[in-house]
């Protein structure tokens, strides 16, 4: 059982003296481990009748005995709450005692208790608006929160009432230094934790938002993608190793459809049908967001589907393409990059970025159309790719200006 410094002090709020009666309110101050919480006793008294040293009304009159007995009873009630929390091995703080005394809370909800409850609720909704990956990310966030509390406070849990601004800043520092996370990764885990805090606020389990003065800053990360030349090299290269040939084709398929690994892996023949324009389309619900991603099939994507229509995985299991594990995909893509003379560190998700930049936006497809095909719920997400394209155009134009400048210099020299 943890030990605490605990005291109760009754004092006069002398700066609130009533002009009509000349009386001032009597307050109770609860102090636990140096932190205070103040409660009104509901009593008022003239300053001349108040004994500052004893924290009681002066004298032994009937009025004084009734007044002081009321304060003594309040003192006893507050002390009982403190002892009860200690005996139940619950979190003890001045604010917690105040909340219980005022009837705002009889149970001290804890951080990890609420986090686990949230994750259990989320798990029950997998496939009904939430993806398994979302649940796993919240489980990882819970694990980091639990480890932080143990590391920083040397405890197994803590009350929601303890959540202050410094908890958030210390948590960020822990993620960045002890866990050695990048800024964006640390911020993502704080976003998950903020969701838990929001639940506590909505339920009135905490009064102040510890995130109120904390700014979640994400560093802009440039999305890796393949250029037209690199995409052409990958497409035209003769690959004799079957496993690499299949990975190349699945990767190219996603470069021309914008699908993520989890979405292409679950595709079946039923996801391909004829659209209103009479052409073949892929209709799929994105695993990550649950939003629709409807994409017309470009010739290369059609060609790849046709190539694998008799593959055992397609015929027996009804899959659209033979897709191996994401881990193998990324390992084999590194081999393919070497074979095709691509110096970039290719990962499977780069296919989605390539579709957005090189295949669509660079060829004049409207940003709203690209966002729709990618299944983005917010156009701001798509605008990241548009910015990448603008940077590429800017770089190309600088090279052109340099060439034109050289031509101008040569002409001047020959005159």
Sequence-ordered SSE layout with sheet pairings:
Layout: E1 6-12, E2 24-32, E3 35-45, E4 50-51, E5 56-57, H1 62-87, H2 94-101, H3 111-123, H4 132-153, H5 165-177, H6 183-202, H7 228-236, H8 242-255, H9 261-265, E6 272-274, E7 280-285, E8 292-296, H10 299-307, H11 312-317, H12 326-339, H13 350-360, H14 367-374, H15 379-414
Can you walk me through this structure?
- This protein has three domains: 6-101, no CATH class; 111-202, DNA polymerase, domain 1 (Orthogonal Bundle); 228-396, Orthogonal Bundle (hpI Integrase, Chain A), CATH 1.10.443.10.
- The radius of gyration is 33 Å and the shape is elongated.
- It has a three-stranded antiparallel β-sheet with strand order 1-2-3. It has a three-stranded antiparallel β-sheet with strand order 6-7-8. Strands 4-5 form a two-stranded antiparallel sheet.
- It has 15 helices and eight strands.
- Helices cover 52% and strands 11% of the residues.
- The chain has 415 residues and is mainly alpha-helical.
- The protein has helices at 62-87, 94-101, 111-123, 132-153, 165-177, 183-202, 228-236, 242-255, 261-265, 299-307, 312-317, 326-339, 350-360, 367-374, 379-414, and strands spanning 6-12, 24-32, 35-45, 50-51, 56-57, 272-274, 280-285, 292-296.
């Amino acid at each position: 059982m943890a030990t605490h410094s605990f005291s109760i002090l009754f004092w006069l709020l002398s700066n609130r003296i009533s002009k009509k009666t000349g009386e001032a309110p009597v307050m109770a101050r609860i102090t636990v481990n140096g932190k205070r919480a103040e409660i009104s006793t509901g009593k008022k008294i003239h300053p001349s009748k108040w004994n500052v040293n004893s924290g009681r009304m002066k004298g032994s009159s009937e009025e004084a005995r009734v007044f002081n007995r009321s304060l003594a009873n309040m003192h006893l009630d507050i002390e009982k709450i403190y002892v009860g929390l200690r005996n139940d091995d619950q979190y003890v703080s001045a604010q917690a005692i105040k909340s219980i005394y005022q009837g705002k809370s009889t149970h001290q909800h804890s951080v990890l208790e609420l986090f686990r409850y949230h994750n259990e609720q989320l798990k029950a909704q997998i496939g009904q608006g939430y993806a398994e990956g979302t649940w796993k990310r919240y489980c990882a966030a819970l694990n980091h929160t639990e480890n932080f509390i143990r590391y920083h406070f040397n405890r197994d849990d803590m009350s929601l009432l303890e959540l202050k601004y410094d908890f958030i800043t210390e948590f960020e520092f822990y993620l960045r230094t002890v866990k050695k996370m990048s800024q964006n990764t640390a911020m993502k885990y704080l976003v998950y934790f903020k969701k838990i805090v929001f639940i506590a606020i909505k339920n009135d389990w905490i009064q102040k938002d510890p995130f109120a003065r904390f700014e979640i800053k994400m560093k802009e990360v440039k999305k890796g993608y393949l250029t037209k030349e690199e995409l052409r090299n990958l497409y035209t290269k003769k690959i004799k190793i079957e496993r690499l040939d299949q990975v190349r084709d699945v990767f190219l398929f996603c470069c021309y459809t914008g699908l993520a690994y989890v979405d292409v892996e679950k595709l079946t023949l039923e996801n391909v049908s004829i659209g209103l324009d009479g052409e073949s389309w892929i209709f799929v619900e994105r695993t990550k967001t649950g939003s629709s991603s409807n994409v017309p099939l470009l010739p290369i994507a059609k060609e790849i589907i046709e190539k694998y229509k008799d593959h055992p995985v397609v015929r027996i299991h009804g899959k659209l393409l033979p897709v191996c594990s994401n881990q193998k995909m990324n390992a084999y893509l590194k081999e393919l990059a070497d074979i095709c003379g691509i110096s970039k560190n290719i990962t499977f998700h780069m296919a989605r970025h390539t579709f957005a930049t090189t295949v669509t936006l660079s060829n004049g497809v409207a940003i709203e159309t690209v966002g729709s095909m990618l299944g983005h719920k917010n156009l701001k997400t798509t605008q990241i790719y548009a910015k990448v394209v603008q940077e590429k155009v800017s770089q190309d134009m600088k090279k052109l200006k340099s060439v034109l400048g050289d031509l101008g210099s040569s002409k001047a020299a020959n005159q």
